Records
---
Amino acid sequence: MRNVSTLDELRSARLSLSGTVGLVPTMGFLHEGHLSLIRRAKEECDHVIVSIFVNPTQFGPKEDLSKYPRDIERDLNLIEPLGTDLVWMPSAEIMYPKGYQTWVEVEAITSPLEGTMRPGHFRGVTTVVAKLFNGVQPHKAYFGQKDAQQAAVIRQMTRDLNFPIEIVVCPIVREADGLAMSSRNVYLDPEQRKAAIVLFRSLSTAKETYEKGERDAEKIRSRMKEVLASEPLAEVQYVSCADYDTLEELTEINSKALLSMAVFIGKTRLIDNFVLD
Ligand code: AMP
């Protein structure tokens, strides 16, 4: 496994790989969720490239950029046994050199949900992913359903900008009690960690309600809110029952839908979602 940081190193390493290439973009501090993406890429492609870059432009001024967890040595030890060919770890100066002024913006689909709560977030995500795509030139790129809106936004950008890349979205990997794996889970103290399963409980309750025949989206949102309200440590930012493709809030569920939420447990912001198909 080779590790590179500069664009020249990346280009020459990339040129030496023949056959299909799968890219797994990450911000590091890897867990089983990330590793599931790498395994899937390994199954489907001749070569796998993992990028590790904590992208400053997708963090808001009050967000956790400086304390975002990092452990490159541990990450490399986790990636190596999976048969990854190349790890690209650019610095912020390589991605955004002095005088940088070009941005990629996707419109409507970035407005609701995470886009409302985190202004500018998706502009940072789409810009960096476009740069990762240009640098790596993969045939396929792997993203997690955990960040459902991000996956939808990347699919839209890929179509709109004609990137010849197939976007593969992989299922959410969860802890045994249902908490969706996230690099940010390390911020939770033991009491908060227990409280954090309320997101999964809330989504599960909503899904059961749907499976019993409820199609009124407002009632489904209310069920999710009720369960979240039962946990004193949970502070809800949003709860959504939206159309799976457009992410517009639904009145009635009569097509594929996305149940999603953002909830603070203490200072840690957690997101999770279920798809109703
Ligand atoms: P991040 O390092 O948080 O930017 O995540 C990198 C990629 O891993 C993104 O495509 C995420 O959606 C995906 N990912 C993060 N957590 C999970 C999870 N629990 N299950 C599946 N994919 C995940």
Note: The chain has a mean pLDDT of 98.
---
Amino acid sequence: MRSLTGHCKVVGSVLAMMMKEMGPCYLQNHCACRLALSYPAFASTSNTRKLVSCSLYTEPSCKEGLAKEPRNMQYVSKVDRPENVYILGIETSCDDTAAAVVRGDGKILSEVVSSQAEMLTQYGGVFPKIAEEGHAKAIDKVVSEALFQAGIKESGLSAVAVTIGPGLSLCLRVGVRKARSLTKIHRLPWIGVHHMEGHALVARLTDPQLEFPFLVLLVSGGHNLLLLAQKVGDYIQLGTTLDDAIGEAYDKTARELGLDLSKGGGPALERLALEGDDKAFNFSVPMRSVQDCNFSFAGLKTRVKMLISSQDIKPSIVHIDEANAEDRQIRADIAASFQRVAVLHLEDRCDRAIEWAKSMAPIRSLVVSGGVASNKVVRERLRNLAEKHGLRITCPPPRLCTDNGVMIAWTGVEHFKLGRIQPPPPLDEPDDCYLDLRPRWQLGEIYAGGLRTARSLKSTNAHPSLTAEMRIHSSM
Ligand code: KG4
Ligand code: ZN
């Protein structure tokens, strides 16, 4: 690829110099920005790529350049064969500290997760400051272990991929700092990954036959999304949640029912529901009268809470393991009834999203991913729905549905192949420098046809969506 874009004279001439030195490469940037290049060009340990280290600073007068980070440029690395690409993925957006090494051809070389589930048991939720401390304690060990298991040294990596959003800022910061320090020392490129794209794209690692375009339902603790995936980095958002995500509803209900949260609220509720009658209590299915693809779980969660307090059970005092048979049965019936309606709501919205997506693109597959997609009832019901519409279904194995480093490393591979990588941080970058973290970051562009109720959606995003950013890059 030989494209040279740069609106400012200085950048133009520096680029020309780089191309002379390096051969095929390109860089895109805003006008009125200043480029500082640390020369000479560095060549990596692997002869499959060659990059120079450089930094882009924004002139104070430049209104377009938003960051002190080199956000608006790309180097295209020269990669001959996927087997020669080794990406380390780091994930710290919520309560799991995870790292993995994945090869460009999809071979998983290592995966390590350190969970903070005891925080759920102790505090009933994720507390950012406590989670940050947990990540800080675990991160070095988790990353070293991932490299050790993969049998690779930092210098043998092609790049480091790290979640930069969405998630808790304090937690994201731990992973991003680690990634930046590794890439700074070992002069490696890095890739900022969107956590939800990680959940979606990991399906392409586990199912190599999965081709774009496809419909994807993402169900996790913080997000509920229906997306038409058009290509890597390009999504149309058909629906999102207007309030709580389904995972949050599972977690809160599990807590109200006095379940053991040490392995997560969702799995505990799923297990108890096996003992219950799912029609014992009749909760209404949310949003049946609203003809769109958005979700709402707050009402269901509140109705379940009210039902629990109206029953002759004391889950806040009596733990499920100490409850008598009658009490346990009531709790199991509540769990099963909640789950039936929560999953029905997913089916309703997916049913419509399949119709919408089919009218927009020749989709052949439905992907279901995110923590809640490890639930057997969710997988089975959505499998039936996909079959009804003549679609294949892809659900990654449960360990890759919940947060993990593999999905971040693999998303790194996908972007690396497209050349969407950032150069290593400057050698003199201080540890406490500004970091490009995106706690609220939309993945796709909202589907105009689905905007009827979307007016009530919170629009507090500080960053353009990943899709909008990628489209700007490819049009420059
Ligand atoms: O994707 P994930 O690991 O983290 C986020 O990005 O939020 O999802 C975590 C959520 C939690 O709410 C957890 O309770 C839920 O996924 N979850 C489940 C199951 N396994 C995990 N919910 C229902 N059934 C499960 N088996
Ligand atoms: Zn997640």
Note: Residues 97 and 138 are 7 Å apart (CA to CA).
